[in-house]
Amino acid sequence: MKGVLLLSLGLWSLSLGLWAAADEAVVPPEISQIPNSVVPSPGSLDSATLSALSARTLQLRSDRQTFDQRAEIFEAEGNVEMRLGRSILRADRMRIELRQRRAVAEGNVSIELDQQRIQGSRLEYDFEQEQGSLSEAFGQVDIRTLGASSSQRQGAAALGPERLVRFRADQIRFDANNWEGDNVRLTNDPLDPPELEIRSPRVTSNLQADGSSLLIAESGQLVFDQAFFLPLPIRLRFDQFNRQPPVSIFYDDFDREELRRGLILQPNFELLRDPNLSLVLSPQLYPQRLWGSDQGVLDGIGLRTDFRWLQPEQRAQTSLFVELRGIVFEEFARRLRAQVEHRVTTGDGGQVTYTYAYRERFFSGRLGFQIVENRLGASYSSPTIRLGSTGLDLSYRLATDYIDALGQPDEIDTDPDLALQNATERIQLARLQLGATLNRSFALWSPPSTEGDHPPPRFSALPIEQGVWLNTGVSSSQSLYSNGRAQSYTAGSVGIDAVIGAFVADTFDYTNLSVTYSNGFLAGASPFLFDRITTREQLILGFLQQLYGPVRVGAETTVDLQSGQQVDTTYRLGYDRRTYGFSLQYNPVRQSGALELRVEGLNWDPGSTPSEERPPSGTGLGDP
User: Fold this and answer.
1) What is the dihedral of CA 500, 504, 506, 510, to 10 degrees?
2) pTM for this one?
3) How far apart are CA 615 and CA 496, in angstroms?
4) Which of 71, 306, 352, 493 has its CA 20 to 30 A from that of 472?
5) pLDDT per residue as tens digits for the range 494-515
6) Residue 571 CB burial class (10 angstroms; 0-12, 13-18, ≥19)
């Protein structure tokens, strides 16, 4: 008999009624004589009491229902659905024990609360304590909505694409706001067996005061392909924000000889865990400087701090970056680097940025790395603007800065070697900079579309779009300085970008080739070295090639066609799967490299840290 059960779960009263699907009342024999059962009239209750009872009302639907009056046990079987407040529980069978105020559900059990869904084999729920447990639990969580308030979750599409994480647990204990799982396995892989798992002895999900949820996994293991185990000695926090990975490994050998760091090992510890605040403390270890340094062991230890403060109502973000390269206090000023930045998103989608930086580092092409001792400035960067139906995309940027850096206040050497030799003093000038780019891409070839199912890429997180494209662009940069100097550069570029293969076969099933040529008109020169344009005509060549399975190699180089010199070169060796990847990069020109771990769909982002090597300034729209 299909039916509906309503239970009012008051602490001192319990009213029970049973209705058939055809709205015909069916009342179990002598149900009104259940001990301690009181059915008050609506008129005898005030509005507050009615509201409280409504929140605690249980609704149950099923194909078959029976009631044992003596034992006060209600049993439902077949397509059972129970609603209690915002929660929905479904199962094959359910038993409600009125005396113990307890419910037991078995068989294909699932619980839904807001946008989260958990399944399991057996559920026990205590109405008195409003707590329960679920055995052999599994489900999925959308990371976009973790850390987002209730109003933000209603517009989840604005938070970006889904970032689903599946989980399994031996047991989950839950109440109205929180749940806790034992021996939990988290994965970002939609397929079984998963390529990547995070295994943790304990995972908790807590409801925050603003309606957001926080998912925290205790220290555990990273498991790759069910075979390779990597220990995770720190707690992991998951929400919609990108964060630094647990450990960063990179190489940086640019600086004066006595300050070169070489290999850098950097664990990242998140000290603040508020959705709008993030404070990351990152000790640094320089193994190559631990031994043999005249400054002692402390010369091989550094410290980095990253702070972020989001202000959602003002559409703003404030960030602070501080780094001490070796704990040698006698050289504190030259070993310290710092930057504070405040960004505000405007109504048109642009961005206003206010910045102060101390000992900021720039890569300036043929002039190599340059240090800007102090920079105070503000800028506006426009969104990308599509110009009608022309296919043209326009971007522009306005900036003003006060700069203290190495330069040539009087006579300027346009030859990079002479400039590096003769520039020996710091100068302080104001700069006004205006830049714009206009781009358009043309599709030259794409493979014919075929009907039917397309096999998913085995060694890529995203589907591969194959084709050949022609990319064209025009850019202009104008810089005016307070000493009367000016630098103007306007250039055009044309390039070919080709993608062939889709990572379906084991060997040579992906090739990406790119060739870009640019040439322009250069007038004047910057009095500073860090933003001086020295390459007027250049060729950029790049390739990325699958060798076997997830192994791929690539390289990109920039050549100054007037001098024939390599301005910049990067080599890459990658091991990329659908859900994770390792990447080893090295740049011999910049004397820098990195070993990065990519975990798709989670919020580990190796690129979320402030850039240590800014591109040459003045040739485009990059900061500053």
Assistant:
1) 20
2) 0.76
3) 22
4) 352
5) 999 999 998 888 999 999 999 9
6) middle
